From TrEMBL, chain A:
It comes from Mesorhizobium waimense. Keywords: Membrane, Transmembrane, Transmembrane helix. It comes from the Bacteria. Pfam families: DUF6064. InterPro entries: DUF6064 (IPR045708). This is MFS transporter permease. The keyword Ribonucleoprotein does not apply. The chain crosses the membrane at residues 30-50, 57-76, 82-106, 118-137, 149-169, 176-195, 201-220.
UniProtKB/TrEMBL annotation, chain B:
The keyword Signal applies. This is Aldo/keto reductase. Pfam families: Aldo_ket_red (PF00248). Gene3D superfamilies: NADP-dependent oxidoreductase domain. Residues 1-26 form the signal peptide. InterPro entries: AKR2_Oxidoreductase (IPR053135), NAD(P)_OxRdtase_dom_sf (IPR036812), NADP_OxRdtase_dom (IPR023210), TAT_signal (IPR006311). PROSITE patterns: TAT. Residues 47-296 form the NADP-dependent oxidoreductase domain.
Length: 225, 306
């Protein structure tokens, strides 16, 4: 691209905020009442992690893998790509993330959600916010309830819950599981920011939390060795 | 699309319909929209077209597709002809095709498209896809989008024009980018059209490009006349000057469009909108009297000082 320095993020925004939020309205309308199932599944994850933190959590990886495929297919591939051609290249990354989650879930020591340091608890807190608070945002920012973003149905809350859980996890494949959700949060945050949307800070703060948490852990590890 | 007698009659009928829809012009004002000649052919075209950047990228949403078709319907009723799009504009092309189907394929359509690909071969395949999305037999105008791979595409487009597969060839830029190269291509290739950004605050094109277009006989399409809506939003809190009535403007959008269209080198401005009342308002700017050079400077100074 010539004279790339003359382009601003808003030059790459191909759609209006109205069209963007209508996608969520149509997605919710098409998939309602599956929301109840995905939110119940999310609550079950938290109940399990709080009551039995040391038990095998492979099923959580399997569940997340299924939801990443589902959101990638129903939302990114079947809706978002129609208004944003760049999603054509992003949607396969959701499938890749699902495959890595699947492998991590079934391989011994691949994914254990029993890390309870400061970063781990912060991750769980943000994951809970992604599950419970995210759908409540529309009236706060002047949008109809019908455009609510729900875990397992819309990408942002699904990705934020996943990142939060990963911060509370340990496992051999963990380094492979952070990049794609973090990049999605960055992409989504910049998209919302270019639309002047008040929700833009949410995915961007999540990326900052992940970077800070991983940086802090690395620092602690180095000073301990 | 060739202009048949039937087409001309339909265009005249559309202009008459527009006169019925639009506010009645003041005494002494014209009753038909401003027409501008395409210098390379002499064909007359209405000075207000319809852009589709962002506004027509509504995906598969049936309600929003219908709104776009309504916008197109009012545009054609008001006498408009040129609709401009690009493969870069997401779902805009299939949405135009949907609208044309719903409107019974208006024969007055002037289909302006772009090629936006890194190679000539990819460009040819892309053009065929675009044609299929629009559902037209051929495009009236094909432009090289933002000068991407411009040498290869221009060669292909001139061959297509010679073979009668398209009628006009052009190049585009936006927001003042690559004006040096743009000027070089305008001076060395037999272009029919150029498309660039020009409005009451972005006047860089007046220095070199617009005089060169007039000298070389190249039609000029103006994109982003309202800076993607930012300019009208910025001006909306201010009163129009009292003297704006002299040129029949009642809104800032018309004020800006009158300024653009009164430059003698400009052929068509292509504001984009999702609202039918805005289409009417935009097309109405092509009616009536236009500012002279002195008033143009007064208009620019007024906006600059706000």
């Amino acid at each position: 691209m010539s004279e790339w320095w003359t382009y601003r993020p808003e030059d790459f925004l191909l759609f209006s905020p109205r069209v963007y939020w209508r996608m969520f309205e149509l997605q919710n309308e098409a998939l309602w009442s599956l929301h109840l199932v995905t939110v119940a599944a999310g609550l079950a994850i938290f109940m399990f992690l709080l009551r039995r933190p040391n038990r095998d959590s492979g099923w959580i990886g399997l569940l997340l893998a299924a939801l990443w495929v589902f959101v990638g297919w129903t939302f990114l591939w079947n809706r978002y790509v129609a208004i944003n051609w760049a999603i054509f290249y992003v949607a396969p990354l959701f499938a890749f993330q699902a495959v890595v989650l699947l492998i991590a879930a079934i391989m011994p020591g691949g994914l254990r959600l029993d890390r309870r340091d400061v970063a781990g608890w912060t991750g769980l807190l943000f994951a809970a916010a992604g599950l419970v608070l995210y759908p409540l945002f529309p009236p706060l920012v002047g949008r109809p309830w019908t455009s609510a973003e729900v875990f397992g149905i819309a990408p942002d809350p699904t990705v934020i819950v996943t990142l939060g859980l990963l911060l509370a996890a340990r496992g051999k494949l963990l380094p492979l599981l952070f990049p794609i959700p973090s990049l999605w949060c960055l992409l989504s945050g910049v998209t919302l920011w270019t639309m002047d949307d008040r929700q833009a800070w949410l995915p961007l703060v999540m990326v900052a939390i992940v970077l800070a948490a991983l940086g802090l852990r690395s620092l602690i590890r180095r000073s301990a060795s | 699309m060739t202009i048949s007698r039937r087409t001309l009659v339909q265009a005249a009928a559309a202009a008459a319909a527009a006169a019925a829809i639009l506010p009645a012009p003041a005494i002494g004002q014209a009753t038909a929209p401003m027409m501008r000649p395409i210098p390379s052919s002499g064909e007359q075209i209405p000075a207000i077209g319809l852009g589709t950047w962002i506004t027509f990228n509504v995906g598969d949403d049936p309600a929003l597709r219908d709104e776009c078709a309504d916008v197109m319907g009012v545009f054609f009723e008001a006498g408009g002809r040129m609709i401009d799009s690009s493969p870069m504009y997401g779902s805009s092309q299939p949405v135009i095709g949907y609208g044309l189907d719903r409107l019974g394929r208006p024969e007055t359509l002037f289909a302006a498209e772009k090629v936006w690909a890194s190679s000539s071969a990819d460009g040819a395949a892309q053009l065929e896809r675009s044609r299929s999305f629009w559902g037209v037999q051929r495009f009236d105008l094909v432009q090289v989008h933002n000068l991407v791979a411009w040498e290869a595409h221009l060669q292909t487009l001139f061959e297509m024009k010679a073979a009668g597969q398209i009628r006009y060839v052009g190049i585009t830029t936006s927001e003042g980018r690559r004006h040096d190269l743009f000027e070089k291509i305008m001076g060395s290739h037999p272009l029919d059209f150029v498309q660039l950004t020009y409005n009451i605050v972005d006047r860089e094109a007046e220095e070199q490009l617009l005089p060169l277009a007039a000298e070389r006989g190249i039609a000029v399409i103006v994109n982003r006349p309202f800076r993607q809506g930012a300019l009208t939003r910025q001006l909306d809190g201010h009163q129009l000057p009292e003297w704006a009535k002299e040129i029949g403007t009642t809104t800032w959008a018309q004020f800006i469009l009158k300024f653009i269209l009164s430059h003698p080198a400009i052929t068509v401005a292509i504001p984009a909108t999702t609202r039918v009342n805005h289409v009417r308002e935009n097309v109405a700017a092509a009616y009536g009297v236009f500012p002279d050079a002195a008033m143009r400077e007064q208009m620019a100074a007024y906006v600059r000082d706000l």
